[in-house]
Amino acid sequence: MDGNPAPAIPSSAGASVNRPLPREYFFDSEIYQREKKNIFARTWRYVAHQNELAGPGDYMTLKIADESIIVLRGRDNQLRAFYNVCQHRAAELLQGCGNIKGFITCPYHSWSYDHTGCLRSATNADSVPGFDKSGYGLTSVRLEVWCGFVFVNLDKDAQPLAEQAFELEALIRQYCPEVETLKPAARQDYTVKSNWKALVDNFVESYHLALSGPAHKAFTDLVDCRNFEVTPHAGGPYSYLWSSHHAPAGPKNNKAYRYADERLMGGNNDFLSIHLFPDIGFVFFPGADALVAFVTAPDGPETTAEIFAYFTRDGATDEDTQKGVHYFSYVLGIEDNDLVERVQRGLRSAGYRGGALMIDQAKSGRSEHAVARFHEQIRDLVG
Ligand code: FES
Ligand SMILES: [Fe+2]
Predict the structure, then answer these.
(1) CATH classification of the domain holding 172
(2) Residue 11: pLDDT above 70?
């Protein structure tokens, strides 16, 4: 498939209207394969908060660009990541998540690896001339703990996330100085019938907030949307690495959920959502002492595994926070998923002629300039 130059169509005044990505980018399986190779196998991918793997032996497995990866906390308390494959004859080693007390033992011929990935035992190895256990350790994957969150990257040469996103780190620490010690408090998982980018598009524009369903209208009472600021940022090798979406809080007695006390976390009550390329968001919302990790991980060209993971200072949620969690996961989130699935169905229509991104000159809170930057980055990486 040919590359797609940044498309623009003339307006009546002779300027150009920015076009979104062509609709094929949201369902074409060949484009999806290129995304896996050029984006998901090369960028820092969110795994969990480090306190979700708190004890020695705690592990989880996850899929990244068709690869199964193990993330494991060793007996030395270090987090490490490995390809989830035995070096004997390639059996997958672990599934799901849990705790490994002793060695990682392959279910096929019981080769055993320690928590650092070294092969410790292989039956009959002493009788095999030339066999050297030191050459058969697990294959490591790069892992970084950034702001208390665990990220992995299949690209051995990737620039550290801490270097790419140092300005973002300062912003997150401003809103949550205790980010490293947060504990998991609540989580909801959804399967959304859309391409992952349709969810990101929806996450990085505020144009729809006052214009779609009742939960969204309530949002414009929860936060002061007249003063919404949407700011895209470059970082590392990326012309678009992250965007911030900020608005002051509205009244405590608002139409989304009433709360008694302002948020304690970070000393301010503002709304802030952050999108970090490619598929992770962080959200702070008024009255709720929680940080939300919002994941929109692809699971096929038209399927997204969406996670709302809430973290609080002690793993508990007070009454105000519970109201916020309920509103975001079960009211606003559901409304958003319905909107995004409608978009996905519409993108399949030959009657859709390519659309427009509504970018105003002031780059106002309802302008779709962050969507444009995200799409430009996709075009750059995928072609
Ligand atoms: S494939 Fe793992 S021990 Fe044989
Ligand atoms: Fe929304």
Answers:
(1) 3.90.380.10
(2) no
